[in-house]
Each structure stands twice: as structure tokens, then as C-alpha cells.
Design brief:
There is one protein chain. The chain folds into two domains: about 180 residues, 2-Layer Sandwich (Chloramphenicol Acetyltransferase); about 260 residues, Nonribosomal peptide synthetase, condensation domain (Chloramphenicol Acetyltransferase, 2-Layer Sandwich), CATH 3.30.559. The protein has eleven helices and 17 strands. The strands form three sheets. Strands 10, 11, 12, 13, 14, 15, 16 and 17 form an eight-stranded mixed sheet that branches. Strand 16 and strand 17 form a beta hairpin. It is globular and about 65 Å long. It starts with a strand and ends in a 12-residue tail after the last helix. This is Non-ribosomal peptide synthetase condensation domain protein. Pfam families: Condensation. InterPro entries: CAT-like_dom_sf, Condensation_dom. One of its GO terms (molecular function) is 2,3-dihydroxybenzoate-serine ligase activity.
Amino acid sequence: MKAQFAGGREGRARLAWGQRAIWDAIQQAGPANAHFFNIGRLIPFARGRGPFPLDDVVAAVAAMVLRHEALRARTYVDEDGEPFQVVHGEGALPIRLAECADDEADEVAEVLLAELARTAFEPGDEWPARFGLVVVEGRVRHVAFALCHLAADDYAADLVARELRNLLLRGGFPVQPSQQLLDLVTEEESGVGRYRSEAALAHWEKGYRRIPPAMFPAVVAPPAEPRWSRAVLKSHALEDAVAVVATRHHVSTATVLMTAVTTLLGTLQGHDVCAITPIVHNRYRPATRNLVATLTQLGLFTLRNDPLAPLAKTLEQSHSDAMRSYRHAQYDQRAWDAMVEKVSADRNVRVYPSCCFNDVRPVEQRTATQVSTDGPCPAQVEWLPGVAHFNCDFCFVVTRQAGTLAIALTADTCRFPRDRMVTLMRGVEELVVESAYRDTRPVDLRVLT
């Protein structure tokens, strides 16, 4: 089955800044790992709020693709190897159907979502969106979709899911998109865009001249099998504690966790100045509030190491630096590359921290929430299947699992072994809990190994 759409604006453009950053990351990750950049969502329709007739859902999908230019933009590569994109005004988006019995719908939906997200999107050969519908007796119980990261980031994927659900439930869209993909590219090429980029790159260059060239410069252990290990820690104690600390210091929970991670890396790695690159959603302006596109880019957060300082003091001193890292996360990716080459040449060493922080929770879940009065209880680190190749030495992720805050870490075990991964993750939990309930001392990492 296909969702037919027609009547949209057409155009050709270079990749937007955030798209170019993702394009480069996908090329570095290699074809075998490109599917890790796909973004999937599942929309269930419980009884009383669905299910919906199949034709209605197919029409809603077509309306969503027509509404957002990024969902109908195909990426190509020119004769010089440079990527560009074409927004198509009409076309037909294939939709997979999975028919099943009522009691099988939830399980079938999970399998369908995994299948949609399992393979990389091929530039030029397919649309940047894959949709699938779970159908029970002719009515749709679940909508599953996977988006190419060149078309959407996590914020945009949440927006697509929310708008599609509201379209089916309420029969229309409340507002027009604040901006479209072609408008974004035009803005970035304008004088305003250049000014924004230059200010951001000045921030980056200043930081790149003072940070260690690499956060994990040495091979310190034989590789695990596979080399990049992945672990997750789900913690009620951390969820409660980070809300307390964030409220107390008038910052987001993401800022608390990023500061905690950077603090502990300074102790574990022995750097005087630590650097971590948060992946920033860049949705602070009204024009980008409900834009479906990839706006995420790296920010640069630096922190001078003080192993004796409690987290409260560190947050007070580093809050403005964290805000600057968020504010200066929009820039021309090609100009950023040139800046890195320039600074690396001046320092006679390649400068790149290869250390990132990514909060993939919906934006509304990043502020402090009501906390429980239960005492803290340590959580266990669980190991996930690793990967043989990854484009970052250290990637710390904040997410949710089964309704609870979770922190996850992917690391190159040659440079940050599995025992350090455990120490770091338990250390983050302990440091934040200490700050929430006692706030009197730093964490002694030796007791966590």
C-alpha cells in the first residue's frame, strides 16, 4: 500500500547545518552502523481512542508527508561527492501492513518497528520515512515509523508522532509549521545565519585552544569483544535526586547530569580541563519550535577539574558555561571543520574530544519533576550488545526505560575499559544522590570500582 501526496513546494538545496553534521557522522560510522542513526517511534491506539479505519490512517500519513518538507526530501551526491537534497512536491510513500489477531497486536508492533529501523536509508533511492501499520480486522491498532536522521532528530520525531495522533483523533492540525526545511537552509545562508555561526565558532575555537586534544588519548587495555561496549543503568534514586538538584540550582536535569559526568571524567582521566560535547536540540527560537528537520548539533562544554568540590559548588560555577554550550550549538558544519583544522595545525595535534552527551528524552521530560520520599537504592549496570565500530570514544545517553530515568554509555574499551564504564555510571548516580540528600562531599570513586 502507498500514501499518495501531491501539491507541495519543491526545491533543491544544500544540506542544512544539522543535516551536514549527521551526514558526516554517518559516513564516519560506516555502512554497517548507519542504521544506528535511524529514529523510530510507535503510536498505539487504545480502545476508546481508536483503532482507526485503514484508509483514514493512510490518508493521515500522506497529509503528514505533505505537511513537512523534510519528510519528502531525498538526499543525493553530486559528481564532486558533495551531498545535496531535493524536496519533492508529489510522490507515493510505501506503507507496510502487518495484519494480526487482537491479542498479538502489541508484540507485532514492536517487531514491525524493529524491522523498519533495522537498515540504513539509501541516499536517493528511498524517501526518508518508513511507515508501517498494525491492522486488526481492517482497523489500525498501531502506527510504527522510522525516520532517517538526515530528515529528523528526536525532537522532530516526537513532533511527527504527536501531530499524527492528533490528526487522527481531532481531524486537523492546530497550527501551521513554524518553518520548513527549505526556509531553514535559506536562513542559514543569510547574514543572520552567518553571524550566528561565526559567534558559535568563536566559542568553539576558544575552548579548543585550552582543552586536551583528546579526552581518551591512550590505549590502556585490550579490546572487549566487540570493541565498543554498551551499558545501561536504570535508577529511581537518580531520577528523584536529579530533580532535587535541578530545582535547587534552577537548571535542567540534563545540565546536572552533564556536569556530573564531566566532573567524574576529570577524576578518572586526570585532565585539568575536561571537555564534553552535548548534542543540542536547538529548539529555543519560535521559528524552530515545531519545525520537522534535523537541527541537532554538538555544543562544547568545558570544566576545570576540582576533585574536592561538591557537585553544588561545581554547578554554581559552571552553569553559565553550560548555557553557552547550548547557545553556541548552531554553526556552519563546513566552517567548523575548517576551524578544527586551523586550531589543530596551530597546536600541532589533532584536537577532538570524542566525548559526547546526548539527552534523548522528550524536551518536556528534561525539567525537574515531583520526587518521591523513598530513600535512594543503588541500581545495577546492565550490559547490552556491543558494536565492532562506532564514531565516538565515549557517548553518554540519558533516556527512559519502563517509565524510569536511565543512563547509558557506549565506550571504546581500549580507551575506557568496562570497569571504568561501571565506575563512571555508578559514580554519576552516587554523586547526584549525595548532592540531593547531603551535598557535603565529593564522591570517592575508589569505593565504586
